[in-house]
């Protein structure tokens, strides 16, 4: 599905804008990098990047996958893991480029919270 954005970004029709917005939202929903998504769908990577920048500037593509640091701490009711075997360092890398790294014990509840944040679920 090779779609051209045209030479002049200012002349894009609403329909063309909607097509690129849909591509970018699908890419984010699948957790793919823009490069992987472009290759899988026969799209130009530079065109995809251009549309991403343009749609963000127009406020049509929010920061739904914007990477910001979010501090997550176990609740007071959660037991504090004690150092021991398997205390790190740990590294969890996702296909979309997100990498979680930490020292200390691997608290599965905390990791679950981080994964839910990354997946957009509360």
Structural summary, described in words:
The protein has 122 residues and is mainly alpha-helical. It has 2 domains: 9-57; 67-122, no CATH class. The chain has 4 helices and 2 strands, in the order αααββα. The protein has helices at residues 14-30, 34-41, 45-57, 108-119; strands at residues 90-93, 99-102. Strands 1-2 form a two-stranded antiparallel sheet. The relative contact order is 0.12.
Helix/strand order: HHHEEH
**Secondary structure: number of strands:** 2
Shape: elongated
Helical stretch tally:
4
Task: Find the structural class using helix and strand composition.
Answer: mainly alpha
Which ranges are low-confidence, i.e. pLDDT below 50, for 5 or more consecutive residues? 1-9
User: Strands of the largest sheet, in order across it?
Assistant: 1-2
**Share in helix:** 40-55%
| N- and C-termini, Cα separation | 34 Å
Mean pLDDT: 73
Radius of gyration: 19 Å
Into which percentage range does the β-strand content fall? Answer: 5-15%
Number of domains: 2
Q: What's the story with the biggest beta sheet?
A: 2 strands, antiparallel
Key traits:
mainly alpha, elongated, 4 helices
């Amino acid at each position: 599905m090779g779609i051209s954005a045209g030479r002049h970004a200012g002349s894009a029709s609403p329909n063309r804008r909607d097509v690129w917005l849909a591509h970018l939202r699908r890419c984010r929903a699948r957790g793919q990098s823009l490069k992987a998504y472009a290759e899988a769908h026969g799209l130009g990577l530079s065109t995809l990047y251009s549309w991403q920048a343009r749609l963000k500037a127009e406020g049509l593509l929010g920061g739904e996958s914007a990477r910001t640091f979010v501090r997550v701490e176990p609740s007071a009711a959660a037991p504090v893991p004690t150092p021991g075997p398997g205390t790190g360092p740990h590294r969890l890398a996702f296909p979309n480029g997100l990498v979680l790294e930490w020292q200390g014990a691997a608290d599965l509840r905390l990791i679950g919270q981080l994964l839910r944040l990354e997946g957009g679920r509360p």
